[in-house]
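The material for today's practical consists of a large collection of protein records. Read left to right, the backbone structure tokens trace the chain's path through space. An example says more than a description, so a record of this kind follows:
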Amino acid sequence: METGRFLIFYQSFDSVLKDIKKKEMSYMSEYGLRSVHMVCILRMKQSEKGMTVTELAKATQKDKALISRTIKELTADGFVTTKTTVEDKSYKKKYYLTEKSERIATDINDDIGEYMSMARTGIPEEDMQKFYEVLSSLTRNISLIAKNED
């Protein structure tokens, strides 16, 4: 019984992930971004107060060293800037999107909104709410199980 549910769960998420990756690849080629760049830009778009590397690592669930390297790349390419002074500690610097990346984030957010709206066709909002609650619980529980098995 549980094996059948697992296969539905696994195959469904595998299929959805493949389709999402295709969509992600279109953004990356259009804007010249890598996957981690896009995730950082979209997370930073949600924060109007700027984000530190630590905050961004936590929000993206990525390794802090990876996010630190990514922020350096995004800064060098003009996607991210900092408003801090030289004497500010580098680990406490807040980073902000530039006008260039704000436009990109807005374009991607608008496109994702349309994409998700089409994906939700025929599904009542209360069902979507419950789906995301259950998905969050499953994600948290599976993560805990995986950590305990390490």
Summary: The chain has six helices and two strands. The mean pLDDT is 90.
